[in-house]
Amino acid sequence: MFARLASCSPLPFRTRQSNVCPVYIRAFSQAKFVLPRPHGKSFAHRSELKQAKRIVVKLGSAVVTRGDECGLALGRLASIVEQVAMLQNQGREMMIVTSGAVAFGKQRLRHEILLSQSVRQALHSGQNQLKDMTVPVLEARACAAAGQSGLMALYEAMFTQYSICTAQILVTNLDFHDEQKRRNLNSTLHELLRMNIVPIINTNDAVVPPPVPNSDLQGVNVISIKDNDSLAARLAVEMKVDLLIALSDVQGLYDSPPGTDDAKLIDIFYPGDQQSITYGTKSRVGIGGMEAKVKAALWALQGGTSVIIANGTDPKVTGHVITDIVEGKKVGTFFSEVKPAGPTVEQQTEMARHAGRTLASLLPEQRGEIICCLAELLTEKKEEILNANRKDMELATTLGRLSQPLINRLSLSTAKLNSLAIGLRQLAVSSRDSVGRVLRRTRVANNLELEQITVPIGVLLVIFESRPDCLPQVSALAIASGNALLLKGGKEASNTNKILHQLTQEALSIHGVADAIQLVSTREEVEDLCRLDKMIDLIIPRGSSQLVREIQRAAKGIPVLGHSEGICHVYVDSDASIDKALDVVKDSKCDYPAACNAMETLLIHRDLLRTPVFDQIIDLLRTEQVKIHAGPRFASYLTFSPSEVKSLRTEYGDLECCIEVVDSMQEAVDHIHKYGSSHTDVIVTENEETAEQFLQQVDSACVFWNASSRFADGYRFGLGAEVGISTARIHARGPVGLEGLLTTKWVLRGEGHTVADFSEQGSMKYLHENIPVPQGSFN
């Protein structure tokens, strides 16, 4: 249907009966006007864009037309219309400034001319001359006249699907220069918005004179309507618009022409940064270019309108680019008058990568000195740390936004700091056997030796919530492994994180690598950080299962190391020791219920029901004030049972647990595989054969026999510290310490060897002899 509408002949608007409301505004000069008094300040941060009420969406010619310039991009346009309609139906006031009439008209007229020539040649000259047909140069105003009606017919059909009325408005400079016409335009637009109608605005290219070069923007208070970029900017200021979204065929503004070496997308552009930009050529269609867009954007920004330039042609993002922008996501280039006090997250990442390479080149002893220094600072500055932590705790308690488990994780104590310091000193010793360790050595051929050595991964991004003790732990592991580190903590621990990061940088500075670890304190959304796939090599989430799942979903181009849930099981077998069972169950659930390695489901062998063992376990849980949820089978055995569990796949993170009954060890294993999260699972039994079968069959990162699930921890395993517990099946698994933050590279040393030397006609033969590697051998 849309294709048929796009190719139909234009009808006079005065005779059309539809829900498109035509509005004519005659004008004919290339005039200038004076900027009115700004209606207010633009938004300072992307996160504030959610508050935008009145929005202009500017569609460039490259967005509206197909790549082959042989028609309109119907699918792309339909997607944009859908997003505009959705925002309109949310109660926002949407306006569209559209290009495409000239390009659409050019295509239609070209088709008509070719068709006409084809008919004439067929009648008078024969078929053999069809290949010589040429299309004359088409005059732009005629193209606009021919294309405008078809373009509006298409918008009408698309918006009708969402029960939204549209109105066409054609303008030129005179409509803004002439005071009476300007008031008429302003009044008309306000009335349309009041009636919940989406105005579709375009320059009246059928009557305007050709544009004068470099006349679109002159000074800071004068603007003339040369193209739809300047029109959108002028309209935004005139209508006191909150947000102008300019969609083009590039991702945004680059510091040099896109596609050139080292061209970088600019996340935030500030007035005064123009000198740092090198502009390329204009788009393939239309009369604008990036320089015109930037000038128009800055003019609108000064008038109080926030501006974003983004890509409206990328099929990966077109379906949600407008809504993503309004939601505050990092899309395109955001124009802001407020420059942050510190570096951007992109700059922080570059600084960390540069300093991280220096960190990796230090001697193992030097990296150990940095970690020991940090351990000393944790004890020396404990009062400052605890004072900052008290501020965070008081604020969290006052606001009441955190659950009790999260508040428990937020809290620091002298004992925690001392334990941290001990773990760091332990890590400092083990760090001497990390970067540059030779894992394998092979004599490939005579005088050609190959080594496989350990190297840092690169730049790590660790996102954590509530637990400030995570910061020094992860920092020490990054130092030991020679990795650069970007830290993003929750705002609930901002005071504690700030002092801990300062101490970390103080320790790093003893060897001149303070920038290797950066704390992101800007308003970066987690999803935006996960898109830095060109800058970050590994993401490690530390927090709730919801946080981990969100990161795993958002980080499409960056590997994520972690677990989504900590649904840990303790299975009490029929041959279990009562004393061991009580100790393991109590410690696994009650030692630290908020931890990811705490027991969430207790599996009981059916033979233990109505025995002293079962009664004592229930009494223990009640004494410890653990709320019990009954599994379906367990509930069926009881006359008056506790509340039945809603899901057997639940991580409570508190003094709560599920109890379920199984018939055998094999059934316990099957239950764990079905409802567990592959984190940590425990069997309590005196039967060695049963225990070994359980240890072999359970496919979890940690599997224990007669030991608390709380032992699943890097410090308790002797790793010194951990960045988290991974339930993945590749790379690191279980508590991830120093080894999990290293990868390898291959080093080949030869004497001018070539592959041709080993061909059938060559003089050399492969040996592939393994060379023994002495323990502690380093490259």
What would you say this structure looks like, in words?
The relative contact order is 0.09. The protein is of the alpha/beta class. It has a 9-stranded mixed beta sheet, sandwiched between helices. Strands 21-22-20-19-23-24 form a 6-stranded parallel beta sheet, with helices on both faces. A 4-stranded antiparallel beta sheet has the order 27-14-13-28, with no helix packed on it. Helix content is about 35%, strand content about 15%. The protein is built from 24 helices and 28 strands. The longest helix is centred in the first third of the chain and has 24 residues. The chain folds into 3 domains: about 250 residues, Acetylglutamate kinase-like (Carbamate kinase); about 200 residues, Aldehyde Dehydrogenase, Chain A, domain 1 (3-Layer(aba) Sandwich); about 150 residues, Aldehyde Dehydrogenase, Chain A, domain 2 (3-Layer(aba) Sandwich), CATH 3.40.309. The protein is globular, with a radius of gyration of 34 Å. Helix 12 runs antiparallel to helix 16. It catalyses: L-glutamate + ATP = L-glutamyl 5-phosphate + ADP; L-glutamate 5-semialdehyde + phosphate + NADP(+) = L-glutamyl 5-phosphate + NADPH + H(+). Pathway: Amino-acid biosynthesis; L-proline biosynthesis; L-glutamate 5-semialdehyde from L-glutamate: step 2/2; Amino-acid biosynthesis; L-proline biosynthesis; L-glutamate 5-semialdehyde from L-glutamate: step 1/2. Pfam families: AA_kinase, Aldedh. Keywords: Amino-acid biosynthesis, ATP-binding, Kinase, Mitochondrion, Multifunctional enzyme, NADP, Nucleotide-binding, Oxidoreductase, Proline biosynthesis, Transferase. Bifunctional enzyme that converts glutamate to glutamate 5-semialdehyde, an intermediate in the biosynthesis of proline, ornithine and arginine.
